[in-house]
């Protein structure tokens, strides 16, 4: 399953909201895939803490911003 668009308002970050949403999604699925900008080190660290690993990368030609993406995956 693909997890798309998990964004937390900057002023609300660091309060456990993203963690709660992600854990809820993980309880409902056996696996989750998502894309994150390669340059977004804060998001990459967040997903790594929650058991996601890098399984692919692309040059960003498939997203609106044209920025390189990483494909991350979590499995139960």
TrEMBL record:
Residues 1-76 form the N-acetyltransferase domain. InterPro entries: Acyl_CoA_acyltransferase, GNAT_dom. Keywords: Transferase. PROSITE patterns: GNAT. Gene3D superfamilies: 3.40.630.30. GO terms for molecular function: acyltransferase activity, transferring groups other than amino-acyl groups. Pfam families: Acetyltransf_7. This is GNAT family N-acetyltransferase.
């Amino acid at each position: 399953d693909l997890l798309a668009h998990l964004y937390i308002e900057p002023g609300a970050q660091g309060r456990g909201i993203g963690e709660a949403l992600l854990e809820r999604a993980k309880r409902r699925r056996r696996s989750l895939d998502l894309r994150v900008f390669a340059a977004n080190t804060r998001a990459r660290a967040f997903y790594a803490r929650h058991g996601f690993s890098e399984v692919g990368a692309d040059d960003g030609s498939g997203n609106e911003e044209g920025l390189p993406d990483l494909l991350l995956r979590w499995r139960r």
